[in-house]
Amino acid sequence: MTPEQRKSNRRLGLILLTVALTFGVGFVAKIMLLAS
Q1: InterPro entries, from UniProt (predicted)?
Q2: CA-based angle 27:23:30, to the nearest 5?
């Protein structure tokens, strides 16, 4: 693994994590809105 690959892998990981968190927060917000 070159440092360049490691850097791009870390960026990809951060992007995926951000997407997952966004979906998670949206899902929780929808549950809370529907429950009220």
Answers
A1: CytC_ox_assmbl_put (IPR047811)
A2: 20
pTM of the model: 0.69
Token pair for 30:
């929808």
Question: How far is residue 36's CA from residue 34's CA, in Å, rounded to a whole number?
Answer: 6
CA distances from 9 to 17, 19, 21, 34, 35 (A): 12, 15, 18, 37, 39
- Rounded-to-integer distance, Cα 27 and Cα 14, Å: 20
Structure tokens at 9: 């892998």
**Dist. CA 8–CA 32, nearest whole Å:** 36
